[in-house]
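Throughout our pipeline, every protein is held as a single compact record rather than as scattered files. This encoding replaces a full spatial description with a residue-level series of whole-number codes. The remainder of this section carries one protein's record, kept here as part of the documentation.
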Amino acid sequence: MALVLSLLIGGFLAGALGRVLLRRLRRGAQVRPGWCEGTCAILWALAGLAHVPAAWLLVILALSWFAVLLTTTDLLHGRLPDALTYAAYPVFGVLLAIAGSWQRALLGAALFVCLHATVRWLAPSALGGGDVKLSGSLGAILGSVSWFALSAGLSLAAVITLALRAVSLGRYTDRVPHGPGLLAATWLLAFLPVGAELPSPSVS
């Protein structure tokens, strides 16, 4: 419980810093106090309950922080800031290398980028450019979990996006943001790494 409490407090502080960062980014967002802090605190505390290796816990924490900031901006303004999508690559590159899964990460990133870029080229209205930029880092995480996670991530992201469309009550007249679905699906599969080949020991 000490770990969970520490992560709850740390997540709150990380969310507060993230909210300030969003306000200062050129294409960021103005977010009311409490949203980023509360959401990040909850996700970090949940991460503390996951029975995963210590190195993988760092991946989940970083993913939670990026997910809160990117999802918030995409839902509010329909965009994913380049400053965050590009920064995710070196951050997760280092963390996944520490976790010992850089080979699967590279393949997962390449597959996800190629797939999303192809969809963007064939149907520009289906995906935004930010979704393609984001897909590489998320594909690296999913590839590190397992090959099954890559396909499951695609399906789950589509389901979440459809659910968002259903509950948005016509708010998104042009295109429903797909970034939140991608991020939520990746977080769930990283948190519950079904069929994963992660090194030990675990964090309890």
Summary: Residues 54-77 form the longest helix (24 residues). The chain has one domain: 2-203.
